[in-house]
Specification:
Helix content is 48%, strand content 10%. Helix 3 (83-92) crosses helix 8 (182-199), helix 6 (126-143) packs parallel to helix 18 (419-436) and helix 7 (151-168) packs antiparallel against helix 11. A 5-stranded mixed β-sheet has the order 1-2-8-5-3. By secondary structure, it is α+β, with helices and mostly antiparallel strands. It binds protoporphyrin IX containing FE (HEM). Residues 79, 96-97, 110, 163, 273-274, 277-278, 281-282, 285, 340-341, 344, 408-410, 414-418, 421-422 line the site of protoporphyrin IX containing FE (HEM). Heme binds at residue 416. In the N-terminal section; belongs to the cytochrome P450 family. This is Bifunctional P-450/NADPH-P450 reductase.
Length: 472
């Protein structure tokens, strides 16, 4: 006998749509909350599993480690692209992140690009990464200790410039200007609107004329930018002997099994995919980690000791990063509490029963894995699951965690291809920032609030940065 999956009360004609539509419903949603907040609130109310009727589809939401461990099985469940991610296809079509599993371009792009994201290749990008980090350090040093910075904005500049330089040898130069470059704001507006569109019933879409026009205009700005980059590279290929970037690999690469290459259209989709996936998540992660460190003096003290003893005042290098276990634990713990890509969606390949024989789920059902709730499951992490404690992420303890307890980079075939890139970049940035600066919360009483685009980031988080004695 299976158990009925719990569901919040529904409204006539609207099902549970209003539970997730902050812009439509002040009744069911808390003012100002985004969709991801709404899911977190529902998880606290309904526990490990609940379903929502969203008229066009039903969503089954899973929040416990036990359920997620069961869903993390490529033989029984596979990724499905719905909601905000389906809207993102309006820009990046069958690029790696948003491709439906059966679309042939996913397998081709995956084959061609896997070697480009191997740890060894990413190490070759270290100097370009350091170049961009030095621009961030210079900006904060020039500001002096009284100027207020929004780390989320500056980390976004940094992550954008880094992925553009490493993936396509293009300098966005975001640190040169006070305002955010047009391409960057077009992308941010596009991602926010993709989230909003996914929360609105389809039949209301024509009413949002102004937003629709802006949405189309932003898509054009970004697609034109990527097309120009490809045309320029074709006219002016990188000279042989120069190291190849991701754009070269996509233009020249062939699937070793089929001999097929990528079309220009798919290369545009993947370039834009890297710009989205490569900046949103990493900049959010850097911002959350900075916040957690400023709120946890003991962890900051221990990290600082490690940085000082390993790097001294030398510029942070790859060799240094390999010798900093506490830094690694800090990054893992930050991604546990605030996984910046907080949900993924899977579907069963046949009718299934999950939860130890408890819940029946049908073939093609849409099941959301809520990584934030799952990574705070007290069954795995104890009663202090909501606290920032990097010690539980040091290698020895980490190795003893149950399988799938820590999953900020997704799972299996469709797990994050950019993980080594993000890890190297984030380690370099955090070690360099805390080596050089004493950071302070600009508003000492600030407590974490988040904002959502496709991912989550801290909202209204402001700091001041004072150079440490003896650093310049
Ligand atoms: C996929 C997280 C950085 C490129 C994913 C997924 C997650 C994730 C959870 C799986 C999504 C799903 O199942 O629907 C993160 C986090 C990052 C990060 C937390 C940083 C802290 C990056 C970077 C890049 C990147 C730097 C590129 C340079 C991708 C791509 C996919 C992906 C292309 C789709 C892979 C596929 O389906 O074949 N990422 N990511 N990510 N990520 Fe990342």
């Amino acid at each position: 006998m299976t158990t009925e999956i719990p569901q919040p009360p529904t409204f006539p004609l609207m099902g549970n749509v209003l539970d997730l539509s902050p812009d439509l419903s002040p009744i069911t949603c808390v003012e100002g909350e985004g969709q991801i907040h709404a899911f977190d609130r529902l998880a606290l109310q309904y526990g490990e599993i609940y379903k929502l009727d969203l008229i066009a589809s039903e969503l089954i939401n899973c929040n416990s480690h036990a359920l997620v461990a069961e869903l993390s099985n490529d033989k029984r469940f596979r990724k499905v692209v719905i909601g905000a991610l389906a809207q993102v296809r309006n820009l990046v079509g069958d690029g790696l992140f948003t491709a439906h599993h059966e679309e042939p371009n996913w397998a081709t792009a995956n084959q061609i690009l896997m070697p480009a994201f191997a740890a060894g290749t990413i190490q070759g990008m270290f100097d370009d990464m350091s170049d961009i980090v030095s621009q961030l350090l210079l900006k904060w040093a020039h500001g002096g200790p009284v100027k207020t910075f929004e780390p989320t904005e500056d980390y976004t500049r940094l992550a954008f410039d880094t992925i553009a330089l490493c993936a396509m040898s293009y300098r966005l130069n975001s640190f040169d200007k006070e305002e955010i470059p047009p391409f960057v704001s077009a992308m941010s507006e596009f991602l926010t609107e993709s989230g909003m569109r996914s929360a609105r019933p389809e039949f209301l879409r024509p009413w949002y004329e102004e937003s629709n026009a802006k949405y189309e205009a932003n898509i054009k700005v970004m697609s034109d930018f990527a097309r120009k980059l490809i045309d320029a590279r074709k006219l002016n290929p990188q000279k042989s002997g120069n190291k190849k970037d991701l754009l070269d690999l996509m233009l020249e690469g062939r699937d070793s099994k089929t001999g097929v290459g990528l079309s220009d259209e798919n290369i545009i989709y993947n370039l834009l995919t890297f710009l989205i996936a490569g900046h949103e998540t990493t900049s959010g992660m850097l911002s959350f980690t900075t916040y957690y460190l400023l709120k946890n003096a003991d962890a900051l003290y221990r990290l600082r000791e490690e940085i000082d003893s390993v790097c001294g005042t030398e510029p942070v290098s790859l060799k240094h990063l390999a010798k900093m276990p506490y830094l690694k634990a800090v990054m893992r713990e930050s991604l546990r509490l605030s996984p910046t890509a907080p949900a993924r969606v899977v579907t069963p390949l046949k009718d299934e029963v999950i939860g130890g024989g408890k819940y029946a789920v049908q073939k093609d059902a849409k099941i959301v894995v809520h990584t934030t709730s799952m990574q705070r499951d007290p069954v795995v992490w104890g009663e202090d699951a909501n606290l920032f404690k990097p010690e539980r992420m040091l290698d020895e303890a980490f190795a003893k965690l149950p399988a799938h307890a820590w999953q900020p980079f997704g799972f299996g075939l469709r797990a994050c291809i950019g993980r080594p890139f993000a890890w190297q970049e984030a380690g370099l940035v955090l070690a360099s920032v805390f080596q050089k600066f004493d950071l302070f919360l600009a508003e000492p009483g600030y407590t974490l609030e988040t904002k959502e685009t496709l991912t989550i980031k801290p909202r209204d988080f402001k700091i001041r940065a004072a150079l440490r004695p003896g650093r310049s």
